[in-house]
Amino acid sequence: MKIEILKAFNGDSIHISFIENDIPRNILIDGGVGNTYKSPKNVEGSLFRVIKNIREKGEYIDLLVITHFDDDHIGGILRWLNKDKKASELIKKVWFNSGKEIAKKFESAENEDLNIKIVDGEDDFFSSTKQGIEFEKYLRDNSLWLGGVIQQGEEYNLYGLKFKILSPNNENLAKLLNKYEKQKDYFTKGGEYDFKTSLKEFIEEEIQPDFKFKEDKSVANGSSLAFIIDDDDKSYLFLGDSHPSTIIEGLNKFGYNKENPLNVLFVKVSHHGSRHNTSQDLLEILKTDKYLISADATKHGLPNKRTFARIINNNPNSFFYFNYDLKDKVFSLQDWKDYPDFRCKMQNEF
Fold it and tell me: Same structural domain for residues 125 and 8?
């Protein structure tokens, strides 16, 4: 199995390729921001390259996973579908929790802000006021999606892999349906960069008895799909932008806890390394040295150095993998002196 963390700017896009019974398979998790596919000036991005390579080899995207509604995860997919009229021919199956299906699940009214549209000729689908085809209708019309809701506790066997769904849970989905507001959720300002503070300062602050972890409150992030992929004796953890309390609950349902931690080859850290999406309680249930972060440090103050400090405090031998060269931007010489056992590098392919 080959896993590539695409250069998705401030977003997420992950390409997984492998062979099942001599058949090449491709899984695409999210598409990053629009420019991950192609910029308004037609500069081709890493998603464009991946799609082009799959098409030239006569292969397919066997599973396209849209973790949640945020532009930095779905924007590149929408731009691809808009620009490439033959895109649907390349996709075999889609996982996507639509607003309509969530409303149907709860037998409730729809939230119109969850109705995403593909607008012909547009580059920004989230602020556009023009009419376009509904994303859900596009998927159904092209027989790419059967509907339904994917949620915590479910297991799926696909292409020789086992998927264990950790997020979202019922509460996350209900909040998305009832509280999600497009303008509020997509365009809120992020926090300040915290790179000037040392790892030691963060760790010393967090070991104090009065320190309290503050979890992400975004209803969009809370609805994010997150899952374990089991490939024979190897496991991988993809957390999207999920909330740690939901992941802990999901891990518990599958029998994982502090006494029986989940052993994974790596963790794709939630929400671009945000300090609000990785808790000490979650880290204590995971057993790994490898942490993947998808972020270019250009927006929303992400990644947070505090998150790395929390991980190092839990595992001094942590190895951080960035999809952009952030090593010298995030960590100081003093950090390496204080904690000489952790490592960090830019690496996109695994």
Answer: yes
pLDDT for 114 equals 93
Q: Is residue 219 part of a domain?
A: yes
Q: Is residue 228's pLDDT more than 90?
A: yes
Do 135 and 214 share a structural domain?
no
> Of the candidates 109, 132, 147, which is a domain's last residue?
147
Q: CB neighbours of 38 closer than 8 A, spacing ≥ 6?
A: 44, 45, 48, 79, 80, 83
Residue 203 is part of which domain span?
A: 199-346
pLDDT value for 181: 86
Q: What CA–CA distance (Å, rounded) separates 251 from 242? A: 13
In a domain, 9, yes or no: yes
C-alpha 184/C-alpha 187 separation (Å) is 6
Strand partners, 14: 5, 29
Residue linked to tokens 């506790």? 153
- Looking at the structure, do residues 321 and 253 belong to the same domain, yes or no? yes
Q: Is the separation of the CB atoms in 244 and 282 below 8 Å?
A: yes
Residue 336 located in a structural domain? yes
Asked if 342 and 212 sit in the same domain, the reply is: yes
b/e burial code for range 246-283 (CB count within 10 A of at least 16 → b) = bbbbbbeebebeeeeebebbbbbbbbbbbbbbbbeebb
Mean pLDDT of the chain: 94
Q: Residue with structure tokens 């580059």?
A: 123
User: pLDDT tens, 278-305?
Assistant: 999 999 999 999 999 999 999 999 999 9
Structural domains of the chain, count: 2
Residues 311-334 have a mean pLDDT of 98
Contact present, 321 and 293 (Cβ < 8 Å): yes
Residue at a domain's end among 131, 147, 163: 147
Alpha carbon 226 to its chain's center = 8
**Which structure tokens are listed for 289?**
């040295």
DSSP β-bridge partners for residue 322: 293, 346
Q: Is the pLDDT of residue 186 over 60?
A: no
